[in-house]
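Priority: medium. Attachment 1 of 2:
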C-alpha cells in the first residue's frame, strides 16, 4: 500500500524570548491510503504546528513532507498553494461555510478554483453530498442547517478536489456527542471508500475507535498509544 502522507524528521523551532524552542523535534510519520490517524496532546504541545506543516501551510525548520510522494520543500508560494488545492482537504472545528452560498455552491466554488470542468463538478458535488446524506439540502443556505449538517457539507467540500489527504482540526468540537461520532464515522467511511488518508487532531476520546492508529504529541514527537 502506498503512503499518501510522509513526514520525514520534521523539526520546527520557534523563538521564545531570545531562546529557540523545538516545538517539533525530528518527528516522523507515514500514513498509508485508507488509513485514519488521530493525534492528541495537551494545549501547547504543537498539534496545530504539526497540522500546518503536514498540510503545507507552514514550512518546517528542517525535514520534509511528501504528499502522494511529492515534496513540499523548495516550492514557490504559488506552487505550494496549487499543491494544497490538488492534494489536501481541510476540515476545521467549525465548518467555515460561505454564508451567501447554497450547499451545492459551496462545493462548486472549490471546483471552480481548481479549474474542474463544470459538468464534472456538478456531477461530483451531487455524488459527494449524496454520500454524506445531504441530497435533499442542495439548495439550502448554511444558516438553515444544523451544526452536524454544516460539518457534513465541510466533509463533502474537503473531498471535492479528490485530495490525497484529509486534515481535520477538532472536527467534533462544536457538535454534541452523537453528531460528533456521526461526523467521524463519515470521515472514516469516505477515506476508506476513496483510498485517501486522514489525520485528525482531537481531544475527543470517543472518536478513537474509528481511528486506525492513535498518537500523542509529546516533547515534539509522536508516540503511538
Ligand atoms: P497546540 O495546537 O497543541 O495547542 P501549537 O502548535 O499551537 O500547540 O503551539 C505549540 C507551541 O508553539 C506553543 O508554545 C506556542 O506558543 C508556540 N508557537 C506556535 N506558533 C508560534 C509562532 N508563530 N511563533 C512563536 N511561537 C509559536
Ligand atoms: Mg491548536
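Attachment 2 of 2:
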Amino acid at each position: 500500500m502506498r503512503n499518501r502522507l510522509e513526514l520525514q524528521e520534521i523539526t520546527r523551532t520557534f523563538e521564545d524570548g531570545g531562546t529557540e524552542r523545538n516545538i517539533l523535534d525530528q518527528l516522523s510519520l507515514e500514513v498509508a491510503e485508507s488509513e485514519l490517524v488521530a493525534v492528541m496532546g495537551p494545549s501547547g504541545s504543537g498539534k496545530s504546528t504539526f497540522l500546518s506543516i503536514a498540510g503545507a501551510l507552514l514550512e518546517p525548520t528542517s525535514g520534509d513532507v511528501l504528499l502522494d510522494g511529492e515534496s513540499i520543500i523548495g516550492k514557490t508560494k504559488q506552487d505550494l498553494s496549487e499543491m494544497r488545492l490538488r492534494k489536501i482537504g481541510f476540515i476545521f472545528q467549525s465548518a467555515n461555510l460561505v454564508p451567501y452560498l447554497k450547499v451545492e455552491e459551496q462545493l462548486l466554488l472549490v471546483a471552480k478554483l481548481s479549474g474542474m470542468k463544470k459538468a464534472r463538478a456538478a456531477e461530483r458535488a451531487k455524488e459527494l453530498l449524496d454520500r454524506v446524506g445531504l441530497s435533499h439540502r442542495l439548495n439550502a443556505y448554511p444558516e438553515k442547517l444544523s451544526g452536524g449538517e454544516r460539518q457534513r457539507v465541510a466533509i463533502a467540500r474537503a473531498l471535492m478536489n479528490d485530495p490525497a489527504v484529509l486534515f481535520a482540526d477538532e472536527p467534533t468540537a462544536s457538535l454534541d456527542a452523537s453528531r460528533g461520532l456521526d461526523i467521524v464515522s463519515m470521515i472514516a467511511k469516505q477515506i476508506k471508500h476513496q483510498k485517501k488518508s486522514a489525520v485528525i487532531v482531537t481531544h475527543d476520546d470517543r472518536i478513537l475507535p474509528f481511528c486506525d492508529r492513535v498518537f500523542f504529541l509529546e516533547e515534539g514527537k509522536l508516540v503511538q498509544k
